[in-house]
Specification:
Blueprint lengths: L19 H8 L3 E2 L8 H10 L7 H11 L1 H7 L5 E5 L5 H9 L5 E6 L2 H14 L4 E2 L2 E2 L17 E5 L9 H15 L4 E7 L4 H7 L6 H17 L8 E8 L4 E8 L3 E5 L2 E5 L4 E8 L3 H10 L3 E7 L5 E7 L1
Parallel strand pairs: 1-12, 2-3, 2-6, 3-4, 3-5, 6-7
Antiparallel strand pairs: 7-14, 8-9, 9-12, 10-11, 13-14
The structure holds N,N,N-trimethyl-histidine.
Length: 319
């Protein structure tokens, strides 16, 4: 299944030339690595495979919810002239929204990856020839500028995939506030967010029986070996998905199975048996907690749609 949201997060290691972020993460206690580096070409391929695993309900639940609410969504967004997507788009989700909004005149995908952006823009231009497609290259976790042609009052933003769940709550509020400032008063923002639910469903979704999520997680170390000449012994690390109830998040960790030492960029890192590298957080919200974050960022929830179990929410926010 090509859901496309992984491409929203493609990061090259060259973005941080001194690799300060990687080294700081491995030097901190407990050890961490930034989740954005999970998505090189191989990571994006593995994420698409995750979306096909029976345990990973997230992508398919959002897609069927979007399909079932297309008419409601069209009503909420009917006077919008422009759709701005955080992420390169061209996924099933983008098409579901574009199909529901035949009067839309412009589509603006924003992404950090030039290649993902160009491919997405070209695909959408081919399929929606009446649409003005204006890609913006940029990091949407930082400050962005939109093309000047944009009329602030008729923008709809789109941030699918529960990608917002990979931000800490305070980073999520910052992101929402920045989007609010970028779009201006009267704008709308459609956000997909996965909801908190029993760990009996959550944990297998992030630790599937086929081991695809484990391979996705370990690819982070494989990537450090490939691109930076590190010597992590992939066979000596396991994958763990942990539900942190206090923080309402699923954590992915790489677990050292033995006492070992690894080298990266002229430094060495020691691991005790069972010591982990924390590689990703996926926050799961209640509808009320999500609405609270939106309110702190200057948005109010205009409509909210929630799937039947497993629960996934799509919020239409208005500024
Ligand atoms: C694409 C960021 C939404 O957090 O569910 C899937 C990434 N990580 N399995 C998520 C992911 C492990 C995914 N997002």
């Amino acid at each position: 299944m090509m859901v496309g949201s992984a491409m929203a997060l493609v990061r090259t290691l060259e973005e941080d030339p001194g690799h300060a972020e990687l080294l700081a993460g491995l030097l901190s206690v407990p050890k961490t690595l930034p989740s954005k580096y999970l998505y090189d070409e191989e990571g994006s391929r593995l994420f698409e495979l995750i979306c096909d695993q029976p345990e990973y309900y997230v992508a398919r639940t959002e897609i069927s919810l979007l399909a079932s609410i297309a008419a409601d969504m069209a009503h909420v967004l009917k006077d919008r002239s422009m759709l701005v997507e955080f992420g390169s788009g061209a996924s099933v989700k983008t098409r579901l929204l574009l199909d529901a909004l035949p009067l839309l005149s412009a589509y603006v995908p924003i992404d950090i990856s030039q290649s993902a952006l160009s491919a997405a823009a070209q695909a959408i231009r081919g399929e929606y020839p009446q649409l003005n497609v204006t890609p913006v290259l940029g990091d949407f976790t930082r400050n962005l500028k939109l093309p000047t042609m944009i009329d602030g009052r008729s923008i709809a933003g789109f941030f699918p995939g529960s990608t917002i769940g990979n931000f800490s709550p305070s980073a999520a509020v910052d992101f929402l506030r920045r989007a609010r400032r970028l779009f201006g008063r009267g704008s709308k923002l459609v956000v997909g967010a996965d909801l908190a639910k029993t760990p009996r469903v959550l944990v297998p979704a992030y630790d599937d029986a086929e081991g695809v999520t484990a391979a996705f997680n370990k690819n982070l170390l494989a990537r450090l070996n490939r691109e930076l000449g590190a010597n992590f012994d992939l066979g000596s690390f396991g994958h763990a998905a942990i539900w942190n109830a206090g923080e309402s998040r699923i954590e992915m960790h790489l677990v050292s199975l033995v006492r070992q030492r690894a080298a990266l960029l002229g430094r060495t890192f020691d691991f005790a048996v069972g010591e982990t590298i924390h590689t990703e957080n996926s926050y799961k919200y209640s509808p009320a907690a999500f609405a609270g974050m939106a309110a702190r960022a200057g948005w109010s929830v205009e409509r909210r749609w929630i799937s039947d179990n497993p629960g996934f929410a799509i919020f239409a926010l208005s500024a």
